[in-house]
Give the backbone structure.
Amino acid sequence: MTLKAPSTTAQFRLLLRRYAHRVSITCALETGGKLAPEVAFAQLETLWQALEQEAKALGIPDVAG
């Protein structure tokens, strides 16, 4: 995967860190019994879709690989 510019790389790394943080929180809430598994899954799916859209906006063609 070739990124367009150094600023794009930095922006994408920021997106990934934010995504990972939110995934971590969602998983912890589900593990701790504060979220139902179905709700956690739906939130994770929404987070993934948002990451894909943000990556496309940066010009990164396929996040999933």
The chain is about 70% helix and 0% strand. The mean pLDDT is 89. The CA atoms of residues 26 and 32 lie 10 Å apart. Helices lie at 6-31, 37-57.
